[in-house]
Design brief:
This protein has 342 residues and is mostly helical. It is built from 13 helices and four strands. The longest helix is centred in the N-terminal third of the chain and has 15 residues. Its main location: secreted.
């Protein structure tokens, strides 16, 4: 099928005065960042491998210069690592029996394995058996954001690599793109993340692309199993999506920008998409179904600059980067990331 450009629906959101009192956000989920994790620290490698962050950034610059889509892919890669068994690089492990995280359904289309391995090789040449694959994944994700004109926030390091990887964990722990707001909050709360982490980290969808197979059925052709289009989806935007994503195509890999107005730039476009009903996933639109996440979406959509979002994003990524980490004598430092899991 020939690729055609998707019409861009630009939604302008104006901040308006209101006679209602300002909404006070609840304390739950707002105590950011969370408690520090023993063994993690900004500058953990200052003495043992002081050049590691610049080595990672140099490799990321080279990757993105060749293919801008690899940056968002590596940002997604950290989510798949951290939300499954914690940030331990278990996504990199290879299962001969095809029972690892790589083999799970949510990992379909995941990219970044080769790039993480290439970065690891560069780091190993400079600092043998010193820097974990888990830390490289976190640093690469940060630089993916930075190279898309987002913030270059401080990253805690000191993680060690896990030795186990199971597809059942990925199948159970990664929220599907069809998730409603209750399910999303549950998935995140199980990992110790609050509603604000959810709405801020969802802003990652401001860069990158998704395959038609991840959203077309739910949004375009079989909403709620009724063989119809999602009525909440902007009709002009939906018409453009239909030109790209044909019905009944199994595993349709046609790529579609998640933020069509600025797919290369880490900005507030995602939140404007959600408010304007031009976001791709049901899980994106679900943010409007909770009073707290909706208020944040609307505030970011109306914001004149991304400063607040950038600050919140740094904190939320720090929180996610602390999930179930291995530090100290736990786990290992591998020479190569793609070791055998079984």
């Amino acid at each position: 099928m020939a690729m055609r450009l998707l019409p861009v629906v630009v939604v302008f959101v104006a901040a308006t005065a209101s006679c209602r009192p300002a909404m006070a956000f609840p304390a739950t989920g707002m105590q950011l960042p969370g408690l520090p994790v023993a063994g993690l620290a900004v500058g953990f490698y200052n003495e043992s491998c002081p050049q590691v962050e610049e080595l990672v950034l140099a490799e990321m610059r080279a990757f993105v210069a060749k293919d801008w889509t690899i940056g968002p892919a590596l940002l997604r890669f950290m989510f798949h690592d951290c939300l499954v068994r914690g940030c331990d690089a278990s996504i990199m492990l290879v299962s001969q029996n095809k029972t690892g995280e790589r083999d799970a359904f949510p990992s379909y289309g995941l990219r970044g394995y080769d790039e993480i391995e290439q970065i690891k090789a560069k780091v190993e040449a400079a600092c043998p058996l010193t820097v974990s694959c888990a830390d490289i994944i976190a640093l690469a994700a940060r630089d993916a954001v930075f190279l898309s004109n987002g913030p270059r926030y401080a990253v805690e390091t000191g993680r060690r690599d896990g030795k186990m990887s199971f597809n059942i964990d990925a199948n159970n722990d990664l929220p599907p793109p069809s998730s409603n707001i209750v399910d999303l909050k549950t998935y995140f709360s199980v990992k110790g993340l609050g509603w604000k982490d959810l709405v801020v980290l969802s802003g990652s969808h401001t860069i990158g692309r998704a395959q038609c197979s991840t959203f077309a059925a739910d949004r375009l052709y079989n909403f709620s199993g009724k063989l119809e289009q999602d009525p909440s989806l902007n009709k002009t935007y939906a018409a453009g999506l239909r030109e790209l994503c044909e019905p009944g195509v199994v595993n349709d890999t046609t790529p579609v920008a998640m933020d069509p107005s600025s797919p290369y730039t880490f900005d507030l476009g995602y939140y404007r998409d959600v408010v304007g009903n031009t976001s791709l996933f049901l899980s994106d639109q679900a943010l409007m179904d909770d009073r707290w996440t909706r208020a944040y979406v609307e505030r970011m959509a109306a914001a004149a600059s991304p400063g607040e979002f950038f600050a919140d994003y740094a904190v939320a990524m720090t929180n996610m980067g602390r999930i179930e980490v291995l530090t100290g004598d736990n786990g290992e430092i591998r020479k190569t990331c793609a070791a055998q899991a079984d």
